[in-house]
Amino acid sequence: MPIMKRRSLLVMMPMCLLHALTMAQPIVLNVPTVIQEQDQWCWAAVSASVIRAAGTPIEQCTIAEYARTSATWHNFGSVNCCVDPSQGCNYWNYNWGTAGSILDILSHWGIDNYGYGAALALNTVQSEINAKRPFIIRWGWTGGGGHFLTGYGFDNSTIYYMNPWPGEGAKIADYAWVVSGSNHTWTHTNILRTALAAQLTSFRAIQVEKDAVALTWTTMSEIDNFGFVVERKDSTLASFHPLPGGVIPGHGTTVVPQEYAYTDNDPVTGSALYRLRQIDLDGSVHYSESIMAEMVAGAPGAARPVSFALEQNYPNPVNPSTAINYRLPVTAQVKLVVYDLLGREVAVLVDDQKAPGTHQVEWKASGLASGVYLYRMQAGNFVEAKRLVVLK
Fold first, then answer.
1. Percentage, residues of the chain above pLDDT 90
2. 18 CB neighbour count, 10 Å cutoff
3. What is the spatial distance between Cα 194 and Cα 128, in angstroms, rounded to a whole number?
4. If I label 53, which of 44, 161, 247, 257 is the partner at 20 to 30 A Cα–Cα?
5. So what's the pLDDT on residue 297?
């Protein structure tokens, strides 16, 4: 793949205007970086980035398998893409217009979208991001063929985008260069009708005392967030119901992480599901993924996890060390591994059976280059991964 360089611009302008521009706050959505696992899977990677940003954990091979079993315009082979993706599954794909395309993939996982046969104007980029809608860019190479990217933020005339090609990842570039560079042209766009909710980075439940469940959640960023309502569903209920307390006020529009807490002082004994109903200033409603809480009658007063959880490391960026917390509601075999963006294992932090409770492991990133890394925890059927940054 040709190397892409950001073009530098030097423009003279009055100091008052320059100050106003530099003080503008960038709007950046919490869209994960997903590096394509096969050389033709840029379409699977950008689809995964949007689906994960919308709150659904998904693997690229699952997306490719859906395309394999849906597409009629090409034979993607007879081998399941999660068993051997290097066979017929490793093939290019369309933005839209056929079963198994990016449009069809996003729609299948609940994200309404449509195709637009051109680049977005800068003001449209800004309005889409302000509306909490990332978009998928198709670049056409001057030498033939194409490539997909995910646009997820802006700062004046600068665009934040995710390039899934190995060694690329999160990028920032001038809008004009993204539209047309020496080796590429922005030719097509998938535009979302489904907005992302406030960008949650965690949603956790912990049993406290003998008769309460403490819920905590953190947002990476918020756009027009009026607030949250906590909802619960147990085995006796057919649907979720709001808990007392009304709306927990949000922070409107902010790119500063925010922390929230709510205590359920009248929990049910046994299993219950909790979720957040997030309300925008215009009245639009979004729902978080639900989390399971197992309330144990007569449990000790010390805080006890009621769900599996992997926390964001702190401090982040890492220089030279960081701490990672994880929570177990039951005894489990835990494996916690750090990977680079090419999927190569760089450190095994935990590979042992652990008792219920909150655990912490310290990791020193000595010998590693600056950059973005992933850490992934598996405990039984629970799997979660997060990003960290090493800064030397």
1. 41
2. 12
3. 11
4. 247
5. 53
CATH top-level class for 26-192? alpha beta
Rounded Cα gap, residues 178 and 194, in angstroms: 24
Confidence of residue 21 (pLDDT cuts 50, 70, 90): very low
**189 vs 374 pLDDT, higher one:** 189
Burial track 305-338 (b if 16+ CB lie within 10 A, e otherwise) = bbbbbbbbbeebebeeebebebbbbeebebebbb
Annotated domain spans of the chain? 26-192, 199-305, 309-390
CA-CA-CA-CA torsion sign (151, 152, 154, 160): negative
State the Cα–Cα distance between residues 1 and 203, nearest whole angstrom: 38
Burial category of 40 from C-beta neighbours within 10 Å (exposed 0-12, middle 13-18, buried 19 and up): middle
The tokens for 47 are 């689809």
Q: Do domains 26-192 and 309-390 have the same CATH topology?
A: no
Q: What is the DSSP string of 195-264?
A: PP-SEEEEEEEEEETTTEEEEEEEEEEEEEEEEEEEEEEETT-SS-EEPTT--EEEEEEESS-EEEEEEE
Q: d(Cα 301, Cα 295) in Å, to the nearest integer?
A: 13
What tokens does 3 get? 């190397």
Looking at the domain covering 199-305, what would its CATH class be?
mainly beta
For the segment 28-76, what is each residue's pLDDT rounded down to a tens digit? 887 888 999 999 999 999 999 999 888 677 889 999 999 999 999 989 9
| Angle between helices 60-70 and 42-53 in degrees, nearest 10 | 110
Q: What is the pTM of this model?
A: 0.57
